[in-house]
Specification:
Length: 180
């Protein structure tokens, strides 16, 4: 566990702006719903028989290359910075895509933290704090400082104003939600 802990963290692919969460679980590394076992000094291979994939870390575990049959990407370790809603007033508001049953709202959540709210009103509603990982790039978490594989980037109009957000996650790639 101690050796696997150095590989844990949040990693960002600067090209696609997707995040990769690496955690340890029962002696394996766990990424995107798959377990990875050591296959070399800094390499790990998925144990999933239908989705072969390899993770290759650099020596200090600050970079990981994800190798899949049809796609290779390089991810760099990033930190999550907590954000208060008052620090990002231009992002607050509602966003929607035609065909979705409800909008997403960027708002002030508990203790004034920047929060991503989705779902119908009532118990099924989901509100997660958003932390900053780069300029106009945020990641969602259960509480401030924790991260998940869901991120969103801000899409700006030619005048610099916010026109939409683009949400990416484990099984979600490039969902664009326009500002209402």
């Amino acid at each position: 566990p101690t050796e696997l802990a150095r590989h844990e963290g949040l990693f960002l692919d600067a090209v696609s702006r997707r995040v990769l969460v690496v955690e340890q679980d029962a002696g394996f590394l766990h990424v995107d719903g798959s377990h990875f076992m050591r296959s070399g000094q800094t390499a790990f291979t998925s144990s999933h028989p239908f989705f072969p994939r390899q993770l290759i870390f650099n020596d200090d575990a600050t970079t990981v290359v994800s190798v899949e049959p049809a796609h290779t990407a390089e991810y760099r370790r990033v930190r999550v910075l907590p954000v208060l809603a008052r620090e990002v007033p231009e992002l607050l508001g509602r966003y929607h895509q035609r065909g979705l049953p409800w909008p997403v709202t960027l708002t002030a959540g508990d203790n004034g933290h920047f929060s991503f709210v989705a779902g119908p009103d009532g118990p099924a509603r989901c509100a997660l704090p958003a932390g900053r990982i780069g300029p106009d790039l945020y990641v969602l978490g259960e509480h401030a400082g924790e991260h998940s594989p869901t991120s969103f980037g801000v899409l700006r109009a030619l005048n610099g104003g916010v026109r939409a957000i683009q949400v990416d996650g484990y099984r979600l790639l490039g969902l664009t939600l326009e500002r209402l």
